[in-house]
Design brief:
The protein is mainly beta. It has strands spanning about 1-5, 10-15, 20-25, 30-40, 45-50, 55-60, 65-70, 75-80, 90-100, 105-110, 110-115. Strands 2, 4, 5, 6, 9, 10 and 11 form a 7-stranded mixed beta sheet that branches. Strands 1-3-8-7 form a 4-stranded antiparallel beta sheet, with no helix packed on it. The protein is globular. The relative contact order is 0.34.
């Protein structure tokens, strides 16, 4: 069994910062790519940022220059540093990972709410 859990969400004023964390636990041999997605009310879930096992990163245009994704392969963790937050960044943020382990597959966390007030 594999479990992903996010932490670090909350309420912040526009222009502020938050750091999200994601921890994977359970029967894990290797984690391939890890990603952050978000879903705002009434909108489709969208990719925010992704990072490969080798550290290659990609970002949605809307967050480039403001968000930074990172991971610690030894600890099976991932983080998203979010700076210069805008009200339009308000959403539930999900971590997801392609995991090779007892039961291999794409796993998702339950999500963490980020609310940016204007």
């Amino acid at each position: 069994q594999v479990h992903l859990e996010e932490s670090g969400g909350g309420l912040v004023q526009a222009g502020g910062s938050l750091r999200l964390s994601c921890a994977a636990s359970g029967s894990i041999f290797r984690i391939n790519d890890m990603d952050w997605y978000r879903q705002a009310p009434g909108k489709q879930r969208e990719l925010v940022a992704g990072i490969s096992s080798g550290g290659a990163t990609n970002y949605a245009d809307s967050v480039k220059g403001r968000f930074t994704i990172s991971r610690d392969n030894a600890k099976n963790t991932m983080a998203l540093q979010m700076n210069s937050l805008k009200p339009e960044d308000t959403a539930v943020y999900y971590c997801t990972a392609d995991i090779i382990g007892g039961i291999s597959g794409r796993y998702w966390g339950p999500g963490t709410q980020v609310t940016v007030s204007s």
